[in-house]
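Researcher: I'm preparing a figure for a lab meeting and need a structural model of a single chain. I don't have an experimental structure, so a prediction will have to do for now. The sequence is pasted below. Please return the structure as tokens so I can convert it later.
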Amino acid sequence: MNFGQAVEALKDGKKVARIGWNGKGMFLYYVPANSYPAQTQVAKETFGDTVSYNPYFAIKNVNGTVSTWVPSINDCLAEDWEVV
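Model: Understood. Here is the structure written out token by token.
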């Protein structure tokens, strides 16, 4: 599927990945807007007790960690997306 279809699948709560990715077990998921308790003094001074955030894409990395993810132009033009 193409990237637009992958984004729709993400918004529907599905996990997606590119067939061409080499990393075993890597996938993306959608994180909706929400908030979390401030974890640092800087966050508390800037936002108060609660930090609000915008929706974003997250990637489950090979080593089991999670990072925010931004697509490259190659990802946007790829046709090898799949629901996993």
